[in-house]
Amino acid sequence: MTKDTVHIAPYVARSADDSGYIHYPQEEHDIWSQLYARQAVNLPGRACKEYLQGLDALAMPKDRIPQLAEIDKVLMATTGWKTAAVPALISFGRFFELLANKEFPVATFIRRKEEFDYLQEPDIFHEIFGHCPLLTNPSFAHFSHMYGQLGLNASKEDRVFLARLYWFTVEFGLLKPQDGELCIYGGGILSSPGETLYAMESKVPERKPFDLLDVLRTPYRIDIMQPIYYVIEHIDMLDEIAKMDIMAYVAKARQLGLFAPKYPPKAKAS
């Protein structure tokens, strides 16, 4: 997730010491442990097999927040990626720059218990547990790299449309093979105990086959459970999307305009 405007975050990212080690208090390790334990129960049968394979490959600790160097060792060996420590929210420009360099931004703070089920800001559990396992997958890693390169050269106006592509794939994408069951590959779902069950089992949201033009025209909100998810057939379909003339689709989406939102307007602060 990104934001170009100034944001006063309620969370403060932790900095590494001179040796690159980040010190977290025990209560934050406990939050990680609780989140991990709950998703370890929620994800079997719901997460896509490529994610679960990546989770096994990373072998991240269950009882403490991992150090970024631990994650980097596996990512570098599998797809040539690594992590980059960042504050909670970064500019679109910085976000695209990191992805274009095969660096995945990781906010070095963890959520509080009050926001255990759903967090608007990307914390370290969201980034490491939600996204990094799939960065061991060549198709997912290539798509993320291509996306960064595309966004780096896009105009400010086009980046807004590109954000929807990322949102409905990397963050909140679902997957359903022709001969298989619906499953999750989006890190925004995989890292959220609440949205994992909602996306897979609730009758409320729509689940539509992926269509690039439709995705680019679909508005979203970051502070609610999603009213619509787009579904691809297999993780290799991300390679097919990467080969499309995405910017031509962006131009068409800008011409046609957005669909009507499938959510109520956000309440104004009194």
UniProtKB/TrEMBL annotation:
Pathway: Amino-acid degradation; L-phenylalanine degradation; acetoacetate and fumarate from L-phenylalanine: step 1/6. CDD domains: pro_PheOH. It is an enzyme of class 1 (oxidoreductase). InterPro entries: ArAA_hydroxylase (IPR001273), ArAA_hydroxylase_Fe/CU_BS (IPR018301), ArAA_hydroxylase_sf (IPR036951), Aro-AA_hydroxylase_C_sf (IPR036329), Aromatic-AA_hydroxylase_C (IPR019774), Phe-4-hydroxylase_mono (IPR005960). Keywords: Iron, Metal-binding, Monooxygenase, Oxidoreductase, Phenylalanine catabolism. Its EC number is 1.14.16.1. PROSITE patterns: BH4_AAA_HYDROXYL_1, BH4_AAA_HYDROXYL_2. GO terms for molecular function: phenylalanine 4-monooxygenase activity. Residues 1-270 form the Biopterin-dependent aromatic amino acid hydroxylase family profile domain. Its cofactor is Fe(2+). It catalyses: (6R)-L-erythro-5,6,7,8-tetrahydrobiopterin + L-phenylalanine + O2 = (4aS,6R)-4a-hydroxy-L-erythro-5,6,7,8-tetrahydrobiopterin + L-tyrosine. Transmembrane segments: none annotated. It comes from the Bacteria. PANTHER family: AROMATIC AMINO ACID HYDROXYLASE (PTHR11473), PHENYLALANINE-4-HYDROXYLASE (PTHR11473:SF24). Belongs to the biopterin-dependent aromatic amino acid hydroxylase family. NCBIfam families: Phe4hydrox_mono, PRK11913.1-2. This is Phenylalanine-4-hydroxylase.
